[in-house]
Amino acid sequence: MTRVWVLPLRYGPERLREVEEVLAQSRDVEQVVDVAHADLVVTSLTQRVRLERELRMAGAAGVTVIRTADFLDMCRGGTFELARARAWLQFAGTRVARTPAVPHEPSEDLTAAPRNAKYACERETPLVAANEKLCGLIERLRLARTLQGDFVGERAYSSTLASLRAYPDVIQSANEVLALQGCGRKVVNLTKEFLATGDISEVREIWSTEEMQTLEMFWNCHGVGAVMARTWYFERGYRHINDAVRDWDTLPRAVQVGVKHYDDFCRKIPRADVEEIAEMVRIAAQELASPDPVDLTICGGYRRGKIDSGDVDVVLTSTNRFGLDTMLDPLLQRLEDTGLVDTVIRSAHERDGSKIQDAGGGMSVALTVILFKGVRRRLDIIVCPPATYAICVLGWSGATTFERDLRRFVSVKKSWQFDSTGIVHQTDKRRVVLDDLLWRPGVSIVELEKSLFGKLGLEYIPPELRNTG
Fold first, then answer.
1. Closest-CA residue to 364 (of 315, 400, 305, 299)
2. Residue from 395, 459, 461 nearest 423 by CA
3. 91-95, 98-102, 114-118, 191-195: which has the highest mean pLDDT?
4. Looking at residue 8, what DSSP letter applies?
5. ∠118-121-126 over CA atoms, to 5°?
6. Strand ranges in 199-293 using DSSP code E only, listed in sequence order
7. What is the pTM of this model?
8. Which H helix or E strand runs over 205?
9. What radius of gyration do the chain's Cα atoms show?
10. Residue 259: which of 300, 199, 218 has the closest Cα?
11. Is 288 helix (H, G, I), strand (E, B) or coil?
12. Sheet of 40-43, strands arranged across
């Protein structure tokens, strides 16, 4: 019996299934998960230097290397005998203690497909992934890296998670993931364990500790990031959210609000309540702007299809002749008078990145606490000009990795700087003016977004398919 280890770099999904079917049907070969136990390595790599590097990193030693096509021909031709194999390389190698994650070359077949495009903003990513449980475990590892202060690891797992969430097929073999963007050997090993046990031991071990459970409690407090959570735990000795009261006067205002309303903010907001809250904001804005029309879009997780939300994000615009830069404060006052807004955490006008500062760019943002049906909720109100309405909505609608890769894509492909306030040239900071994006009555935000995607060089992806995590 010949023990075979498959190196699936440059495999597309069809080739991978083909190899696995042959391995399953042959009586003369046995697939192993560790190259250290293999007699034969099967690969489609064509560059010897790269192949030898991959084999060294994997810990291979004393193995015969055969090309995939030759291996398949021999297996289909009858009995497989290692001695008769047309070897491409005899690799002596040296055993290594462990197998680190290393860069890999994406499969040519998969790279051409939108589901494994380089940037997350090019891939359709549904709310519920085909491999949802695995994605949930990877997401826990990402959060662990965040709370451990390992931001490189956090970013790596973000890329991994975005690729796995976009993958449309239920993963049958750990080797499938190696061809995906952001998925190296570490992810292969995690997937292998998941397929064998339905769990990932690293996740279980990390989150069983009091340290990580407490850090997550702090992380869930509005205004508290990973650095502050670690400061609370390791430097100030906090072990519960209520311990923050000891240093109340030193806390930023946003954190004070988060601590005060911690339990309420942790309660999810049903979609129906999100819609009702947004309608109250729209009515108040329309009363202020009248007779000029107002348009409002609910963004965030709601727009991506989530059944409930952590907060409410609304973006609104208007042809108000008095200027949108003066609209936010009266709107907040009106919402306070009606009893909806309880606290304004922050209210400011954020300029775009252009050198010319006028009404054509930027946005006004208010972060508020509202009292709705006896529960305090978070409500963010964003007011922007009609010319940048689609840009602002797009910037507030995608999940984190989608938005990160959108900025990267625009930077690389267009040499533009993109964010919710507008788009500017990277070199001289001139504002980029895109035709056909001006909102006007009768034009839907979907129409404007489709036009914007096209001008950015992207195929349109609806908001419910931007759930990269």
1. 315
2. 395
3. 191-195
4. -
5. 110
6. 269-270
7. 0.75
8. helix 201-206
9. 27
10. 218
11. helix
12. 29-31, 2-7, 40-43, 61-67, 89-93
Helix locations, 364-461, DSSP H: 389-395, 400-414, 445-456
6 closest CA partner among 79, 71, 57:
71
Alpha-carbon distance of 31 to 86, in angstroms, equals 19
What pLDDT shows up at residue 102? Answer: 34
Q: Return d(Cα 436, Cα 125) in angstroms, integer.
A: 27
Output the six-digit token pair for 306: 């989530």
SS3 content of the chain, % helix, strand, coil (to 5): 50, 15, 35
Distances (CA, A) of 59 to 54, 64, 94, 170: 9, 14, 7, 29
Pairing mode of beta strands 312-318, 363-372:
unpaired
Q: Which pLDDT does position 98 carry in this prediction?
A: 34
Question: Which among 465, 310, 308 has a CA at the least distance from the CA of 402?
Answer: 465
Q: Are 294 and 285 in contact (CB under 8 A)?
A: yes
Tokens encoding 205: 């071990």
pLDDT at 108 over 90: no
Is residue 5 a contact partner of residue 32, using CB atoms and an 8 Å limit? yes
What tokens appear for 79 in the block?
A: 């009995």
Look at 89 and 146; give whichever has higher pLDDT: 146
* Euclidean distance between CA atoms 311 and 143, whole angstroms: 20
SS3 assignment, position 356: coil
Do 362 and 351 contact (CB within 8 A), yes or no? yes
Which residue type, as a one-letter code, is found at position 140?
Answer: R
On the question of a cis peptide bond just before residue 291, with omega within 30 degrees of 0, the verdict is yes
Please state, in angstroms and rounded to a whole number, the distance separating the CA atoms of residues 361 and 290: 22
384, two tokens = 């922007």
